[in-house]
Design a protein that fits this description.
Blueprint: E1 2-9, E2 15-18, H1 20-25, E3 35-42, E4 47-53, H2 57-70, H3 87-97, E5 100-106, E6 109-110, E7 116-122, E8 130-138
Antiparallel strand pairs: 1-8, 2-7, 3-5, 3-8, 4-7, 5-6
Protein name: YjbQ family protein
InterPro entries: UPF0047_YjbQ-like (IPR001602), YjbQ-like_sf (IPR035917)
Family: Belongs to the UPF0047 family.
């Protein structure tokens, strides 16, 4: 089976957000897959996807604090500033973390570790709703 679905994630504030359930709920066909893969691609250049801690929200807070410290919005050599001081740092963070994940599917569920979840990294102050292209394959 191959299935491709575009999902829209709700708008979120700047930071990292656990979106595993939001993505899974848009893919009811996953329950039919015994063994397969889910590929998720974020269709934006100022946000990211990553797989990380799904239990303690302090980890998401600390990741945002770390990246904000390393890639501040007021660097004098940035030229791409027409969309605001958070735009160029958002592009850098998206490139560092990536905008796509490929995850194993087993017996109708994501085959992730106990403490793993899909994070959306919202790197803009007002990024808006984000689109994800999800491709499910398996048998």
């Amino acid at each position: 089976m191959w299935r491709r679905q575009q999902l829209t994630l709700k708008a979120r504030s700047r930071g990292f957000h656990l979106v595993t359930e939001e993505i899974i709920s848009g893919l009811p066909e996953m329950q039919e897959i015994d063994i397969g893969l889910l590929h998720v691609q974020l269709l934006h250049t100022s946000a990211s996807l990553t797989l990380n801690e799904n239990a303690d929200p302090d980890v998401r807070h600390d990741m945002e604090a770390f990246l904000k410290d390393r890639v501040p919005g007021d660097l004098p050599y940035f030229r791409h500033t027409m969309e605001g001081p958070d735009d160029m740092p958002a592009h850098i963070k998206a490139s560092l973390l990536g905008t796509q994940l490929t995850l194993a599917v087993e017996k109708g569920r994501l085959a992730t570790g106990t403490w793993q979840g899909i994070w959306l990294g919202e790197h803009r102050e007002h990024g808006g709703a984000r689109r994800v292209l999800a491709t499910l394959q398996g048998e």
